[in-house]
């Protein structure tokens, strides 16, 4: 549900960095094998029990598997929603077509314009790519939350310590990451983020299984802001919020 338009008075261009667990930690969790070299065949259950592997690893399936129990978290906060309507677990699929890379202003087609940010104040949201192609890429774009003001007074959000709160996105501190097909991502409850941006050749897609909670109350399930040109000097062209994709991550991608 669109709740605000946020004017952008100056162009903002950032370059996406590789998605890592530590870099993304303020916004949620990166879900990937935290120790790919450690396999059941070369890691004794006794070593796992001693805590030699991260993320709460335990030996499972009679020693034929390693289970990482603390790989990510899921949160259902609809008990704190104003409507009082409970949320239910949802599993959906997003088939995301590859975005066409365009230019920020006459140069090489190297990035994507960000026009919308959204958040889910009462639930975490996990995107799991269904692909065996580790070369596939997608963009994860997030923003911190500003301190609340009168402008966002009517937006419902949980009153709980440690959550972003009900403020609007801090667009000037936007962060962008390039994720691979071997990584899933969980947005923490209340984290402002762009809709998923698949990258790749023309007409290619990435299928995501999405896991979250929802109660079907629009303003509680999803809040969107539109990023609009707020400049007054038309001769300089539109002010844009722009994410550049590094060259190594955009070979063979569709461009205008």
Automatic annotation (TrEMBL):
<dbReference type="InterPro" id="IPR007247">
    <property type="entry name" value="Ureidogly_lyase"/>
</dbReference>
<comment type="subunit">
    <text>Homodimer.</text>
</comment>
<dbReference type="GO" id="GO:0006144">
    <property type="term" value="P:purine nucleobase metabolic process"/>
</dbReference>
<keyword id="KW-0659">Purine metabolism</keyword>
<dbReference type="GO" id="GO:0004848">
    <property type="term" value="F:ureidoglycolate hydrolase activity"/>
</dbReference>
<protein>
    <recommendedName>
        <fullName>Ureidoglycolate hydrolase</fullName>
    </recommendedName>
</protein>
<dbReference type="InterPro" id="IPR024060">
    <property type="entry name" value="Ureidoglycolate_lyase_dom_sf"/>
</dbReference>
<dbReference type="GO" id="GO:0050385">
    <property type="term" value="F:ureidoglycolate lyase activity"/>
</dbReference>
<dbReference type="InterPro" id="IPR011051">
    <property type="entry name" value="RmlC_Cupin_sf"/>
</dbReference>
<dbReference type="GO" id="GO:0000256">
    <property type="term" value="P:allantoin catabolic process"/>
</dbReference>
<dbReference type="Pfam" id="PF04115">
    <property type="entry name" value="Ureidogly_lyase"/>
</dbReference>
<keyword id="KW-0456">Lyase</keyword>
<dbReference type="InterPro" id="IPR047233">
    <property type="entry name" value="UAH_cupin"/>
</dbReference>
